[in-house]
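Weekly sync notes, structure subgroup
Attendees: PM, AL, DS (notes)

Item 1: joint prediction request from the bench team. They want all two components modeled as one assembly rather than separately. Inputs as received:
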Amino acid sequence: QVQLVQSGAEVKKPGASVKVSCEASGYTFSSYAMHWVRQAPGQRFEWMGWILPDSGNTEYSQKFQGRLTLTRDTSANTAYMELSSLRSDDTAVYYCAKDRGGTGDWDSWGQGALVTVSS
Amino acid sequence: EIVLTQSPATLSLSPGERATLSCRASQSVSSNLAWYQQKPGQAPRLLIFDASNRATGIPARFSGGGSGTDFTLTISSLDPEDFALYYCQQRSNWPYTFGQGTKLEIK
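Output from the run, pasted for the record:
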């Protein structure tokens, strides 16, 4: 079955960067876009962007332009999310989510990675 | 950005009862709407896509309806495992956006 396994929780200082990984199994990694979505405490889910593993093409929400970098390693079936210039309001659970099939909704999610930004 | 507004914020019902959750969009999203269920400490699970299609493995008691700006998620007879948070999400326009959620709690 499809599984997305994310790296563990991180604590970062303001201004630092964080990189979260998402290892996929149970399907053809290169065939489906991988999205990143976050949920800050008490806030709505926020879509951050997606990457097409086959081509490496990306699309970012304007909110995160300039701070967000999505990459992938097809040999390792792993997607990565790097967010820079961290602020306290970036404290959130970050999820990777497999696109259902070029649709922009998500039929499998990682378990989430808590990123805490605190001085 | 399309704003999704869910109602009610909290719905208190008993097992076996029927639940109706609503999601309203600030502009038309056609049928490009999904529903997710989230339990504490877990990732969301896709229930409904394209407004009315059940995702793989989702029980038939879950159904979705609507188009344009007004959508509903109906659970025909509540099972104890259905008490959770529910979110709608639109994929009509970037950025994809979510509703604020409805908490379905046991009465």
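Discussion: The first strand of chain B starts at residue 4 and ends at 7.
Action: AL to compare against the crosslinking data before next sync.
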